[in-house]
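Record 1 of the preview.
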Amino acid sequence: MSNPGNIVGGHKANLNNPNTSEESKQHSKDVLDNEFAGGNVEKSDEKNPQNVAGGLKATVNNPQVSQEAKDSAQERLKDMGQ
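->
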């Protein structure tokens, strides 16, 4: 299943979109009410390690970043096994 937060966000956006039909809005409301407790979804504090590594690699290769920040990013990458 897709990320529940993304699904809820899409249905909430549909409810607020003036260009969608009333039938579509009712469907989104039904989905939120029946499958997602009215749109209340637990948020995960876990970060995607691949995205974190990608950001750190970008920091290491960015010429506008200080050497201190590059060294810190490189150390974190090493700790992640990258």
